[in-house]
Amino acid sequence: MAERMTRGGFAQPGSAMAFKTGSWRDLVAPRHLHGLAPCAGACPAGEDAQAYLAPLTNGDVKSAWEILVTANPLPATTGRICHHPCETACNRGQFDEALAIHAVERYLGDAALHNQWAYPGIPQTTTEPAVAVVGGGPAGLACAYHLRRLGHAVTIFDALVEPGGTVATSIPPYRMPKEILQAEARRILETGITWQGHTRVGSDVDLDELRREFAAVFLAPGSQRTKPWDVAGVVPAQLHDGLALLHTWMEVGSMPPWHKIAVVGGGNTSVDVARALKRCGVEEVHLVTHNGLPWDAEDPMRAIAREVRQAMEEGVVIHANCGAERLLLRGNRIIGVVLVAMKKMRGADGKWHRHGFPGTEQVLMVDEVIPAIGQTVDPSGFESLLQGLDYFDVDHHGRMTHHQGLYAGGDARSGSSGMASPAIGDGRRAAAAIHAALCNNPLLPEKQRPLVPITEMHLQYFETAPRAEPSILPVAQRQGEAEIEQSLTARQALDEAVRCLSCGNCMICDNCWTFCPDQAVLKLNHTIQGDGSPYVFDMAFCKGCGICANECPTAFIRMAPEQDEQG
Amino acid sequence: MNNTAALRDMSSIRQQQSRFEGLTPGHRACQGCGQALAARLVLESSGPDVVVANATGCLEVFTTAWPQSAWTIPWMHSVFSNTAALAAGMEAAFKARDISTKVLAFAGDGGTFDIGFQALSGMIERGHNVLFVCYDNEAYMNTGVQRSSSTPVAAATTTSPAGIARTGKRHLKKDIVAIIAAHCMPYAATASVAYPNDLKDKVRRGIQTPGPAFLMIHSPCPLGWMHDSAKGIEVARLGVETGLVPLIEMEYGQQTSAMPLRRVRPVVDYLKPQGRFRHLFADDPMARQELAHLQALADHNIAHYGLQESQPESGDSHAAASVRRGTVAVVPPGAV
């Protein structure tokens, strides 16, 4: 009987799972690729907004803050004053409106101060060599904080009595309340840092002495010396410097009795001076800048767009793409200034120059012309290091060329933009470099991840949602030290977190798990450590069709050559 | 972890999936098969207490390469013409023995629109409590892409080739849902693999319907439609968004719902990625005319089924597939 059956007649029935369709895959296979969200790529302080927004989507404010402060110990401060390049870079800006990252950062910072949360991960004892930090501004505070996290003993030397540096002395309280900055700075010092205020390097303590006593020195003295300024070779007899005026106004609350003023400059200080003058009752305040407006595509001014908008609301007249060509004098007295239209253009030598166009002159009748064009490092005490330069020459990690054990950052370093968040990034990177050098460890490069441009996202899966807008004090109520921009409510902050597109990282949407025609995507009931997703590919059955990658909203799944898949 | 250990791990993970898998991997469907996905989604929302009568066609062939089976539920193969009769018989037997197990009938468009139609019409007319699912990939794919009465006008198949004389199929796609609905049908609906939640809802409704129910699922076929295997879901979604594939429900001959279109796309968006419509983009008056014909059919669908929406709504063609990160959390107590 048996010999008359066909050969197949003896086969045991079984499951199709014995047949591994994974062998059909041709060249490419899906893999999880952690992309770098544009916000994280753009943050000068090194924050990963996506990472801290994730716990916030579950309402976990404390975890969100704890992730945030692994990079930036001053979020309530930067949430207020940062120029937030993260929001400019945010992919959502090209979909509907960018996430209000600065507002969420500020919300988290304020929540931590309100609840008196302590920094996580600070070792109780100091196990590593002592380091000196010169300057207690954002760069110095951040460097000291990260050194403490790494186990070092730290002493900060500062010429002023209180910490905060330029943020404390030069940013008006209506955008940076003093008590917030002081509370965050105090929290940093309470991690076990020695504060040596009222101690200026050069006069009170010698740099060489610091180098002898400490294993390493981080220099972040800021830029305190006003840049020289003239108009066609003429300097007003009584030169009022913008920053000095601002300092005086912040300390005593008044300005000289002027009627019409022109402020020259395109940075935040020039805008702050102009607004302070307006608040003190100066009738006409003109701001003259070589640059375009902050929202112009070409040659924008450095000042934060929000601040310029508010200044305009308050009545400051902005003359963008203009330069002061000549001062109109009667004897020593200024009666006006001649402006001329200017444009930044590439010259025959291939370099950028600003050109003034004859015939476009206009006269502003003003009582004074006030320059607010920026500062450079005060060289006293650092002459041997600067060698005639007006900045510290450092590499990406703040290491000073030719000076072992010396590091620098903040406004005083080469190429600084004069902003607080890049200074915080400087402090963080220098702390890592100092730690590596003192422990004789190699300095590992920061993990490079590929940036996720919006073109790689699959936006058909997202719904539009309006951006959270903090309430703004009306112009009529902008008096005294009242803060202009308000905090988000908890409801607003939580809703904003859900707007994050999760660029380049898993948002647990189940699309890959749902759409795989071969059930080759499996879902665990927990997220995988180091992957952030609960999904695994069963490569024994994956035919490599590519549907999972094509339907992954965040471009977290990519099709890549097989040999890379192992690595 | 060595390879064997990893595999053992995979099978234990597979056993803990929080969904019912009526269809296992290891099936021999092509890369990116829309039908394989659709069948799993149907069983996910109907199983495990079901039996399946399956007509001849791709689904039958690729799931049961002898002596293996990819089905984890009782499954029976019928010839091309009589799936509905087989399902009707099983249902009658269950009824006689008071068994509540639901009977499903699976067929392709050939087994529904053409060859199996007579048995299907009879099954419905006799009122059998069966959910008949038609996996519509718009041609006889299993035997080598021959045109069926479901193939849309102007699509090229091996028996309706595009050339000098003709621009693909000359005849219209049969309006099968209207024919089914004309049987005083309790529930007839269309779905798409691009909208899995909508699809699963319609399966559940079909199962809950006492008496016959019919569900037609638009299922892209990368081989027959000649698109990239990664683009199946995208193509299916574009079919819906252009109006060529209306997602509707009909109860007792009346249309009771339609998925509104958030943004109506031109039909070229749907046709361009598919090789079966490639000839329509030639510089040729006949091609232009057929392209305009397909656009007119989409416009007609939009008007006929009322697909145009007045304002965005939660169940429309955008919202029905949208995802977001996390949930909207409740403000924790004590938050400022």
Walk me through what this model shows.
The complex is a heterodimer of chains A (567) and B (336). Chain A has 567 residues and is of the alpha/beta class. Chain A is 29% helix and 16% strand. Chain A has helices spanning 38-42, 49-56, 61-68, 75-81, 85-89, 101-115, 138-149, 165-170, 178-189, 207-213, 242-252, 268-279, 305-313, 383-386, 420-438, 490-498, 511-515, 547-550, 562-566; strands at 14-15, 28-32, 128-134, 152-157, 194-196, 216-219, 225-226, 260-264, 284-288, 317-319, 322-330, 333-346, 352-356, 362-364, 368-371, 375-376, 406-408, 521-523, 535-537, 557-561. A 5-stranded parallel β-sheet of chain A has the order 5-4-3-6-17, with helices on one face. Chain A has a 4-stranded parallel β-sheet with strand order 10-9-8-15, with helices on one face. In chain A, a hairpin with a 5-residue loop joins strand 12 (333-346) and strand 13. The radius of gyration of chain A is 29 Å and the shape is globular. Chain B has a single domain, classed as Thiamin diphosphate (ThDP)-binding fold, Pyr/PP domains (Rossmann fold). Chain B is 36% helix and 13% strand. Chain B contains 12 helices and 9 strands. Chain B has an 8-stranded mixed β-sheet with strand order 3-1-4-5-7-6-8-9, with helices on both faces. The longest helix of chain B has 21 residues, at 285-305. The radius of gyration of chain B is 21 Å and the shape is globular. The model of chain B has no long low-confidence stretch (mean pLDDT 94). Chains A and B meet through strand 1, helix 2, helix 6, helix 16 and helix 17 of A and helix 1, helix 2, strand 2 and helix 10 of B.
